[in-house]
Batch of 2 targets.
Target 1
Amino acid sequence: MSDLLDVVRGLSKKTDSKIVLVVLDGVGGLPLELNGETELATARTPNLDALAAESQLGLVELVGAGITPGSGPGHLSLFGYDPLKYVVGRGALSAVGIGVKLNAGDVAVRGNFATLGTDRIVDDRRAGRPTDEKNVEIVAKLKAAIPSIDGIPVEIYTESEHRFVVVFRAQNGEALGANIGDVDPQVTGVQPMTATAHDPASEKTAALVNAFVGQAEATLKDEPQVNGVLFRGYSDVPHFPSFADVYKLNAACIASYPMYKGLASLVGMDVLPVEGHEDALEGKIQALTENWARYDFFFLHIKKTDSTGEDGNFTEKAHKVELFDELLPAILALKPDVLGLVGDHSTPSKLLSHSWHPVPFLIHGGHGRFDPAQRFTETEALKGTLGLRRGTDVMPLLMANALKLNKYGA
């Protein structure tokens, strides 16, 4: 039986209209007190408010009711790929995002540098968010200490801040399995977990991961803060249907973090260079403006609405929304035929983590009905004409509003 992606492939058509999809990472939130305001509702957003008053709004569940999505499944869902069918580990996304070529049988792993206390208790899963320069210094130490394990070459790469990537290279045609449990407990106050294989083909990889963890801790034992490593998101080489083939779009990605560039690259988007450090909003608007004539679809990723939520900083998360609001007129000045705003998941400051709560979704274009929602907030979006949608509905709705889908059936 065909899935929605197959149906859309058969209906999509090439036109001159342009679509911009802005993903405000982790933008959904929660009030700190019962019946209070979320970060979005607290933020002062005159430009978003004006846009919402002229748009269609709704809420999106990225995977399903009550299921907390990771960033990978969340973005795949927004791109129209069923995250229950198209599965990829974060390791491959990060590796591809920083330009690492993965070969058949290799396994890429996403790592966090962490702070371990007495008895290896995890005190900080992100080691205080070290600078990129400190990350490079620590990676150099690990490269010198762990060039290989049991004859398997080990490659270690800086991603950003506390994030790094390890690639275990397959040898002599013997593929390494990637079906392994996490080392990262995703909470503090406990010890890192031991990687366990979930199938026989992954037993060797699990042993390599556990050996790496032990050797890394020995290498970093004198570091005051970055003295441990946590792993999750194991992945071999993934394959996806081409975004261009499915949607007939010439698509570009504008993002700073390697994982999102990796995901866009895997589905076939061109990844555009962005000037500035980390979540440089001005650099992203510049990249959008300079490349406007070359593409008909832009995926524009905004990260700090997520990381401030993970840090539990309610006020700063609201401020990051306000900073985006200030730059929204520059996007609108380009006059995209359709502008979509959405999150890839919620990251409430109250929870310091991703959550299952639906995220607000906005479509601005010339073919919508009257919509009573007046702000881009969770509560206002609930009033909108788009209703509660699956994440995989986002791309077909953007395509339809851009008049890029033919009729289905006679």
Note: The mean pLDDT is 93.
Target 2
Amino acid sequence: MVPSFKEKRLENFKSNVFDTTSNGKPPLKHEEKICPNCLRSFECKVGSISLCQCTKVNLSLEEREYLSKQFSDCLCYQCMETLAFEYRITKSYKTITWKF
């Protein structure tokens, strides 16, 4: 019987997660994700969060809330930067008094 695509992916996942070839220690968990905004593939390093691409983006609490209201999953680095910038620009436009 030929294994299905899902079965192959599951087997591949298990072999990567349970591979203990690095000094008998399990490898750090990394997850391949698709950005819900741009649909690019990126690696989420939830097993070593300090190495994850998302830690390179400095977001204020307001910016994090803004992103979390729109997206329920991780975004790629580029989209986090872009959407945070858009939020700051929109916020600054709202503070401008337009009097002519």
Note: The longest helix spans residues 77-95.
